[in-house]
């Protein structure tokens, strides 16, 4: 698990290297935020780590990881970055996704699940160009 990084940094690191393709989604981000039950944290981490190790080898998976949200004590963030919606959908329908679902069941309340279609990405060049204009 990666610690010492907030959620916004994680999303930025996943998207910085992606080039924009005009009018077309270039990647899908899957984010799951969950707070494990107090006595289930290690079990949740084991389930998610099991998924990370196997999902990375799946066709269409560009990256996956487990993070801790430093602004929300105890909240884990599970991220997957996919090449296409179709490949993400196949993954969600697979047996491999059961580990993620089982981890979500060991959380306090409902997890926050979101899927993001990214069609354009900027990097340091945007910051540099905007900072040049400001000064």
Topology:
Blueprint (H helix, E strand, L loop, with lengths): L6 H9 L11 E8 L6 H15 L5 E8 L7 E7 L2 H8 L5 H8 L6 E7 L5 H11 L1
Kindly describe this structure.
The chain has 135 residues and is α+β, with helices and mostly antiparallel strands. The protein has one domain (7-134): Alpha-Beta Plaits (2-Layer Sandwich), CATH 3.30.70.100. 38% of the residues lie in helices and 22% in strands. It has five helices and four strands; from the N terminus they run αβαββααβα. Strands 2-3-1-4 form a four-stranded antiparallel sheet, with helices on both faces.
Brief summary:
With 135 residues, this protein is an alpha+beta fold. The protein has 5 helices and 4 strands, in the order αβαββααβα. The chain has one domain: Alpha-Beta Plaits, CATH 3.30.70.
Can you write the helix and strand succession as a string? Answer: HEHEEHHEH
Shape: globular
Structurally, the number of domains stands at 1
CATH topology: Alpha-Beta Plaits
Helix content: 25-40%
User: What's the mean pLDDT score?
Assistant: 85
Strand count? 4
The whole-angstrom Rg is: 16 Å
CATH architecture: 2-Layer Sandwich
CATH class: Alpha Beta
Distance between the termini: 39 Å
List the total number of helices. Answer: 5
